[in-house]
Design a protein that fits this description.
Number of helices: 12
Largest sheet: 7 strands, antiparallel
Number of strands: 19
Helix content: 25-40%
Radius of gyration: 25 Å
Distance between the termini: 54 Å
Shape: globular
Length: about 425
């Protein structure tokens, strides 16, 4: 590695995943180690949200990896509540989320719906998800309401009983989405992602078999079939999106409409919380993990949105997808070194300022002193970048091409866009 390379600084409160550490190092970031200079950072990475004080005190050369009040869509109960409200207001363009009820508040409504539709095809199996847990913890399926047992806030959701299968195995998609601004709204989606398979063949009658009905890697890696060579899937339980698209192409499946629908799902979901993010918010960036499943008619359904999605590397597929995505994420952070790094990082910082002397034209240097804040303000900046520069794997998605927030918020009121989205949702 070039020892003359200037470094950016990152701060974290707990150990980071190996892939993220590698991406930070390759992007020339070093961790802040000076306890007396804890605010001398460019990127602050946390797995939980930041306090209002953190957002208030952020400097122009610094970036936080979470927006304030931008996690409403990442709680299962809040997401279900918001999507239900948007569907009531805007109609079928929001018909991409299974019928859901938040318990215990909606128990009476759920009981009424369950009694009315229990004998209809596709409405006989439900999935129960704790609102505040992740990685498949506490999730189970039931068909008889007497089997419903829950503690604390829980989402009961109609189970997608006709999923698209490959080799008889169920799968869902993990998409990586980056928001660099809410005002105006700018969304990026990584063109590669993860396809997560169950490790036993789908069987509607055996709803207690989590290895056949759940696609969470944290569950399926303990399956006896995990390491076996499965029909069309191979060993393990993951593909890349590139592999899936190659499979669709081999099977003569035109998937262009699928991806356009997925883009609209991502856009419409994030639009729901634009108003909750303060307009004065600056110097933030957010990484979301969208989980989407396809039914046998190739219609995508949103399952959930993950706050700070898992960045572990259980297999080589994780490495091939997450590492390039993290490099692009750091490129989107727009942090750039604009002055050399001095030898000292003390309270008073000395650096050399190059000047051209008059007469003989020789370059001379003179010492100058500056406060730490002034030094970092001049050394680091949020530098605008072009979309094409180094972002070949993370293109911006519609409708965010330089739209202002007002245009994004009014997009649903334009009759032409409503008509197009309505056709897509059918």
């Amino acid at each position: 590695m070039n020892t003359d390379q200037q470094w950016l600084l990152y701060k974290c409160d707990q150990p980071l995943p190996a892939l993220l550490l590698k991406a930070l190092q390759q992007s020339y970031f070093k961790q802040v180690t000076d306890k007396h200079n804890a605010n001398a950072f460019n990127l602050y990475w946390r797995f939980s949200g930041f306090s209002l004080t953190d957002h208030t005190n952020v400097q122009p050369w610094q970036l936080l990896n979470h927006f304030p009040k931008a996690n409403a869509i990442t709680r299962k109960d809040s997401l279900a509540r918001s999507l239900k409200r948007m569907k009531t207001v805007h109609g079928s363009i929001y018909k991409f989320f299974p019928v859901s009820f938040n318990l215990p508040n909606d128990y009476t409504k759920f009981l009424s719906y369950y009694t009315k539709h229990r004998h209809q095809p596709g409405n006989d199996v439900w999935i129960c998800k704790p609102s505040d847990l992740s990685r498949g913890r506490g999730i189970y399926l039931f068909s008889d309401i007497s089997d419903l047992i829950y503690e604390g806030p829980t989402v009961v959701q109609s189970y997608i009983s006709n999923p698209l299968l490959i080799g008889g195995y169920k799968f869902d998609l993990r998409l990586y989405v980056v928001v660099t601004s809410y005002h105006p709204l700018r969304i990026y989606i990584h063109q590669d992602g993860l396809v997560r398979f169950s490790t036993e063949k789908f069987n509607q009658s055996g709803i207690q078999n989590v290895f056949a009905h759940l696609t969470n890697t944290s569950i399926n890696k303990y399956s006896p079939s995990y390491s076996l060579d499965k029909d069309k899937i191979g060993s393990g339980c993951k593909w890349t999106l590139s592999q899936l698209r190659a499979y669709f192409d081999k099977c003569n499946i035109d998937d262009r409409l699928v991806w356009e629908r997925i883009k609209h799902i991502v856009t419409l979901t994030i639009l729901m919380q634009v108003n909750s993010v303060p307009k004065a918010t600056k110097h933030c960036i957010e990484l979301y993990g969208f989980d989407v499943i396809l039914d046998n008619k190739l219609k995508p359904w949103l399952l959930e949105v993950n706050f700070t999605p898992a960045l572990g590397n259980d297999c080589q597929t994780d490495v091939s997808v997450k590492f390039p995505m993290l490099l692009d994420f750091l490129t989107l952070s727009r942090l750039k070194v604009v002055l050399p790094r001095p030898e000292s990082m003390g309270r008073k910082i000395l650096f050399r300022r190059k000047k051209e002397s008059k007469g003989n034209g020789n370059k001379v240097y003179e010492s100058d002193s500056s406060t730490e804040e002034d030094f970092f303000r001049r050394r680091f900046m949020i530098s605008p970048i072009r979309q094409e520069r180094g972002l070949t794997t993370m293109p911006v998605i519609s409708p965010t091409r330089c739209f202002t927030v007002q245009k994004c918020l009014n997009v649903l009121s334009y009759s032409c866009i409503l008509f197009v989205l309505l056709l897509i949702s059918l």
